[in-house]
Specification:
heterodimer; A: 210 residues; alpha+beta; Peroxisomal Thiolase, Chain A, domain 1; 8-stranded mixed β-sheet; 8 helices; 35% helix; 28% strand; B: 380 residues; alpha/beta; 11-stranded mixed β-sheet
Chain lengths: 210, 380
Amino acid sequence: MKYIITRFCRISLDLTLPNSVRIQTHALDEIQNSDFFALYKHAEIDYPKYFKMDSISKYGIIAAEYLLKGIDLKEKYSETDMGIVLSNASGSLDTDAEFQKTINNKVSFFPSPAIFVYTLSNIVMGEICIKYKIKGENMFFLSESVQFELLQSFVSDLFEKESIQTAVVGWVEYSLGKPDVLLLLVEKTDLKDTSEIEFTSHHIESLYLL
Amino acid sequence: MVSHNMKSPVYILSDSVITPLGQTIAENMDKLYSKVSAVQAESHEQMGTLYRSKFADTSTFPTKNNSDSFTKIERLFIFSIEQAVSKLSFPIDLSQVLLVFASTKGNIEYLTDPDFDHNRLRIGFMANHIAAYFNNTIPSIVVSNACISGSQAIQYACQALQNKKNTHVVVTGADCISEFVSSGFHSFQALSPFACTPFDKKRAGVSLGEGCGTLILSTIPVSETNIEICSVVSSNDANHLSGPSRTGEGLASAIAGAIKEAGIQSSEIDVISAHGTATLYNDEMEALAFQTTGVSAAPVYSVKGNIGHTLGAAGIIETIYLAHSIQQDKLIPSIGFSESGTSIGLNIVTQATTKKIKIGLKTASGFGGGNTALILKKQK
């Protein structure tokens, strides 16, 4: 039995054009306007809740949509067999600063519950779980840069223990207007297909550096 | 099918809890058994009276080396790690051991401080900064999954030990009370207008708390009294970001998974340390999950009335309390409970009671939909 990366989605800042991001997946490689409405339209999502989300959650949902578009995970797996292991560097600091603005002024002190709910590192993961009904093991790590080996070993162990049958794994970082996202879909296989991307820390790193 | 019994058990070799109740385990346990609460009223100009368990401003966390340049939460981590190490019967080199951190908000109270090194607002950076105090350059692991962070840091540590990558792992979790977090819970109208009363009919919300807990774990026990961590399993409600599932299905799935992985029957669970935040929805959700998984007859308690909700530290602090309660064969009472307030009747512990305890369950749930169940067992 081995674990393979069956799909991926990489979103990073594009430096060739202003206000643009590069989106690379198993199926496409394109430059798109980073405006959140344009991203939503391009991804062909129908999920109005997206517009209530903070920036990092929006990028998480866009990436997850590209990752999982056209497949029905629920047909292959039970909801509790689907796991998710994500990580980033900045947690929710971008949104933390937004929330802080609502309590800075002691005269008009109106902490916003709508913003506060996004001031935790793992909320982007919660949003992805809600949209795709991922109900199994869920973990969120913080590290200064992507810990490829950590992601590989922690997720492989969950597979080994048969706690999960599939997992969304990756890095969802957003800071100072810059998205830096890599999502992978990891599944098990018995087949010896040499074209498959085995789930190794080296392959995670290669996809991140794509 | 991989046999779950093939993995090595993980044991608690040493621990430390630093809360406003006390800075030693003995002090914490004595006060839990005698129903002492550290939750006190404090007045806030904009939010009114807040009930919380907070260290006195005069509290010092006397670390071995100079830690003046460290923040309150960083000193708490260092002090607690040093306490846990000093209780070990053998020396352990803190520069060479894997450190696993849990925190939800780290140094967030410095968000608006222009003189503060803002890199340390990133919890991964903060962890490295703390590791540097110990001259530890091994990449630290940081778990930040809301209120299940502490339990999941233990989950990660158990995996790392079972992989034989490490012989010992230090797991530590802390969060401090800040205006940031208090005002957020206040805006949700989730804060109790009195010291919180888990599972009680008149419960009206959570009380926040601060503190730090540290565990030193190994697959090699040093004493037959070392408590074993049998399993830690997580799940996600995939339902709502800030409210628990109405059915308890997510937590039930984690509890069922933990029971299976521990290789025990639900009827063998002698005591449950609940998350018990005292919000209407959390406590009801937990009661439903206990019913679904067949553990609702077991004695249940929550320590939130004693130390408040310590967020990312809760899973670690409360696991340590449970481990000592199992070792001492004594049930911890749940304070603030007088009348059943859940649709499923629970066996809430109201007085410290001597009872043979072999197996205990610790549950936790958090914003973002996460749940965890953790099972502890006495060796014999």
